[in-house]
Amino acid sequence: MEENPFRETDLSLRNRPESCVVVIFGATGDLTHRKLVPALYNLALDGDLPAGLKVVGFARRDKSDEVFREGLRELNQKVSRQGHDEELWEKFSENIHYHQSNFNEKEGYARLRERLEEMEKNGASPNRLFYIASAPEFFDDILLNLKESGLNESENGWCRAVVEKPFGTDLATAQHLNQVVAETFQEKDTYRIDHYLGKETAQNIMVLRFANALFEVLWNNRFIDQVQITCAEDLGMEGGRGGYYDKAGAMRDMVQNHLLQLLSLIAMEPPADLSADGVRDEKVKVLKCMRPFSSAEEVGERVVRAQYTSGTVNGNEVVGYRREDRVNPGSMTESYVALKIFIDNWRWAGVPFYMRVGKRLPKKGTEISIHLKEAPNVLFNAAAGAEAMPGNVLVIRIQPDEGISLGIRSKRPGPAATLQPVKMDFRYQTSFGKSSPEAYERLLLDAMAGDATLFARKDEVETAWRWVDQVEDAWHKAASPPSMAEYAAGSWGPKEADALLASEGHEWRRL
């Protein structure tokens, strides 16, 4: 067979995933049905799933293996990234089992241990991957019962825990959760999952920076004027989400984890190596260099919080946030937040990082834009109107339409030296001829391989919460808290967020 000249084996730095038994706590929930099992199925379809892998769903409802599998099959037909192959599903689902127990029922864990040991006698792997996909209030029960029943150890293999967000609701609860986890699993066996880091474009940030001399030499305050991170959603509180969201808000739900993770990847120094701790050491340094807030007044100057009022989104009339299902009519929870962040280190001194996230905005999308400083206002840039033209902006699109684009100025064809902005564009779908894997596919394989690079470390989580708590305390505990702004659903946010940038001579980039 002829060797494929384009094979990239020599450039692969990936560890090989090992076969294991994946135990999913909260197996009847939406995450398991829409994300985890379809991810495992698509890995099987691509031939990436380790041979002999088995799945055990742990949940409170009374179900048989067959009923559990049928429910998974029905949803996999709708949401699988690569479609549904019934013949493959039949083979794949033979290794899916269901275990009924309450999360605080000690006997249920004893029965689970007996079941896993019986599976091992029949050829199953002794490696165990415990995926905690339950509601956060059950995290302690699950972890403590795993320890008490001895399930956190395996005589002939490894035991690892994957913990879904939220990692607490503030610094104190995050520290408590980390303590419970540490009493059950070693840090090297603990995987705090943030699905944003599993997205292809997020993974590509380090490659873009450190494998291309073109960009890294410009990646500092001498050449970069500002950085913007935007996460826009057109949805509101559909599907009963208001019950959770009104307790969390945009700051806790998105900024503390997803967006600060993206910020740290953009701003980090080159790691000493590509080991998990090598990368995470540099990310933690970024979080520690984020300028703190000295008072509630300073929070008001650098952070804008807002709620949407009624408006039109995608042609549909929608109600305001406080009228949404399961939202307190007097709620002071933000559906939008915009921040001006400074990173006080040698590389980024003086460069503002603007971050915004909001519900009921005109469209869905997440992107990072790096705005380079303007060329001198001479020669072509001295032409009338050139100052109003977009300059050099590098855009990293996280979702949807994953890719990277670079905006430059070019001469328009013709006898006159007329400038026009143009875009150099790279799209994953076009360049590689196939859709990117789902984030959970990559992250599950990494957990099976023992690679924690894309997972949050204990000190990373606590450092992020320590900074976020300053904002939350100003909003909810200060004698004179910053005001709550408003924006019409279907708009790009409140005027106060525009003023946040205008004070520095900047404006938000439209997605």
Give me a quick take on this structure.
With about 500 residues, the protein is an alpha/beta fold. It is built from 15 helices and 18 strands.
Walkthrough of the structure:
- With 511 residues, this protein is an alpha/beta fold.
- It has helices at residues 30-46, 65-79, 86-93, 106-121, 139-148, 171-184, 200-210, 213-216, 242-267, 276-289, 296-302, 428-432, 439-449, 458-476, 495-502, and strands at 21-25, 54-59, 96-100, 128-132, 159-163, 190-193, 224-232, 303-309, 311-313, 316-318, 336-342, 352-358, 365-372, 393-399, 403-411, 419-427, 455-456, 485-488.
- The strands form three sheets. It has a nine-stranded mixed sheet, with helices on both faces. Strands 3-2-1-4-5-6-17 form a seven-stranded mixed sheet, sandwiched between helices. It has a two-stranded antiparallel sheet with strand order 9-10.
- Helix 1 packs across helix 2 (65-79) and helix 10 packs parallel to helix 14 (458-476).
